[in-house]
Prior knowledge:
Structural class: alpha+beta
GO molecular function, one term: ubiquitin protein ligase activity
Radius of gyration: 38 Å
GO biological process, one term: ubiquitin-dependent protein catabolic process
Region (Disordered): 1-25
CATH topology of the largest domain: Methylamine Dehydrogenase, Chain H
Protein name: Probable E3 ubiquitin-protein ligase HERC4
Keywords: Repeat, Transferase, Ubl conjugation pathway
Strand content: 15-25%
Amino acid sequence: MAEGRRRQRGRGRGRGEHTQLPRNEEVCCSNHDETHKLILSPNGKLSEHWAKASANCPKTRVVKELGSRNIVQIACGDQHAMALCRGGELFTWGQNTHGQLGVGSQTTLTPEPQLVERLKGIPLAQIAAGGAHSTTVSLSGAVYSWGKNSFGQLGLGDTKDRDCPTYIGALEHWKTVFVSCGADHTAVLSKEGLVCTFGAGGSGQLGHNSTRNEVLPRVVAELWGARVSHIDCGRQYTLVYVRSLDKFYFFGSGDEGQLEDERNPNQLIPLPINSPVNTEKSCQKKGASKKGIKITAGLHRSFVRCKEGNENLYLNGIATLEDKEVDAWISNSKPFRSIKRNIRLIFSSEACINGSFLDKRDKHFKTSREVSGVDMSEVKHFYGKIRKNQTVYQEVQKEIRNLLPLLSSSPISPENCRVYLILPFLLQRNNEDAILSLILLAEAIMKLQPQGLQTLECLWSNLETSFFKKLVILYQRVSKKILLSVSQEIMVMGPSLFNLDPVKTGPLQILQMLYQVNSRTGFRVHESNFHVHEVGGIIDKCSRFNIVTVLERLSKYPCIFERDKKICVHTTECRVLLSKTLHPIMPFIRIPEAWNFCVRRHCLLQDIWKNLKTASNQDFRKMLKVTFLGEMGVDEGAVSQELFSVAARTLCQPSTSAFCHFASGLVWFPRQAPSCKDEDTFLLIGTLCGMALFNLRMVPFPFPRALYKKLLDLAPTLEDLEDLLPTMGRSLQKILNDESDSLDLDFTIMEGGESTDVVELKENGANIPVTKDNRKEYVDLYVNYIFNKSVKKPFEDFMQGFLRGCPARNWKMFFPEELQVLLQGRTIFDWHLLEKNVTYRQYTKLDQTIRNFWTVFHKLPEEKKKMLLAFLSGSDRLSGYGLECFRFCIEDPQVENPDESLPYASICYLTLFLPRYSNKKILKKKLLYAIEHNEGFGRA
Length: 940
């Protein structure tokens, strides 16, 4: 202790006496009857002392189990002890009948120190022990309690004992800086000087002017505004000190001799007491420039300690980074052995890392799933410093790499998760060691329990955009390295023998998680930052040999693929899954089997349903070949495309009553079964859509994007509802923005139809008003009702049919908007790009007829251009699979009188037969007539 610090001991009613303490005094604590003491030496070594020796236990012993650790704080309960290490670990031992050791059990006695695993990684600021309960405070003010709770002394709202540290939610954002425990009560002090107490109140020790017990923290109203600076609990009393008044206040039982003056046995509210000495003058006599007080309440006496300067009498804490220390590392002003020891102390402990880089503006006291409490600019600043000293940086990197496999997989607080935000930014160097460490970090993240992963994703979503983007780039860089090595291994081993190492997929999983966070937060980072171009080489090799095993694993991380690579993976899988048979002439070659799908144009739907109902599961793995009976068309893709286009158009007609139609032009499932005779309508429609995806065709149902989200197990949002029902969507958005307390709504929805029904969105919803506090829940339930609850059966049937119609599964790698384009096609075209992809027979692109054709075509209205597209291909949409799936040909039919002939199309081979007209006017007239009077596309 520093010179000038004093201990004052009040003995009975006599005056206190001054006792000078040595500069390096030992710290000790004892249980209530002083039969057991802990003694902490100045060098951090711990020993135990018993009033009486026994056969199995000497009177004094060094706690050898903690011999290699530097102890910074100790605490004693009635029959248990606690010790906090400078490296952040908390150890407990002794009696455990109420779970007061916090080790997850209630064994009777644990004589040797045990690590409190549940607090691993929490940067603890202080520990305290009660009679049979324990508490801790983190550096960011989170309070954890465990042990006996028969009076509510754990502050958890009940009287159930706990055998593991449990977060006191009622003290969230309280900014707790100190906690003290009595026999069966607890007091906490906030940074603003407020005091809360809870637990046993029978002696008035809670200060609430009553003898009631309190199971939740309650502010001591009599001390409101007093800015208490220090607190401590005796067995059945509480003592506080208000620095601004230089006064001590007491409440509780005063019959144990702690007080100098006469008091009622039970003091129910805080009242000032006469100090044994004038504390202010006592400190000033020894030259303390800035006085400070620590009080310690005991069974038979209470202590007051003065401090000089800014020395912290309360806390000797865990190791955290300090600017001066880091500067000493960089400047090599200390022996490297000392520097190395300090680096190991901090970077071998997730608690010490989590306690460093705290936001110094007190924002860290608000730590939650949304607020990390980390000042990321300080992390960046620290990295900028250590990278200048290669030796120091390598030492930091080495300790981090050793720590990574030991990180906790079950964090109990957002404070645990800070380490996952900090470490990537200390591993930015593009070298093998950093790459390996980031792979190990990814592995540690993927071992987190679901709740921990959710917390980390929330913290990621609230990172500043610049730091979030940097995080993405880091994991993208690691993913590039991994996939480059994978590509090289495939070249050596061959695609058929290669098996992707699961450990290597960790960074890919993190990158995918970051993409999902990015999508939920409005795409702050462009999706190109997630693409890993090196995956293209792997896809090309695997596609060439029809190897899908590697592609299946990679498809779990769709963010790394550009859209055309996803299509390549999907088409490769579809090609591989096709049932094959031996070639009739060359039996060493296997060719896809064909599913001959015959329909009549005048009863198309009936024939489609008949074919689907009689099909076996194996039929859906065959190559679809559609024939319109009575027509000569051979299906090379366009005929089957026509089948899907006409079927979708027919089913969307109001006369079929299959779907609900909306003013937005979109269709959705009915809330009740359709009035048609066939009960399997949506099973069959889903099968039709699945077949289209498997056969690389479009099926242009005007579904909202919500359908494609549901297919991919993603939840539709209010934005999706506004897409389907614009007026309703805007109304719900206004409700979210309304600042009124009462919105004149309840949790019901009006069903449309002939008889308007009221549907409750939640149990007893008609009696629950929508308010400012629950309006988001109302909107979420409304969206859920429209897209999920009200159409549960039709969508389940649709999904069942879809999975039957499409045996492939890699389509789940597509994003909703991509899947929508694949199935519905493109409605906005780059006609000039289409021109560039056309081929010619008996023509060249410089022939006058061709030049006239494109001049006429580009001047046509958009509607006429789409009609020509339908004339050629059977659909007025372009395939979402790209222009390579739509390359048509213009051919000279070589007729004798071109001006007398009409152009005609063969959708079998996507060919436009265009005679050599003498001028543009004739060409335009003939072309418009042909496309406007075309009645069917299935002919040759």
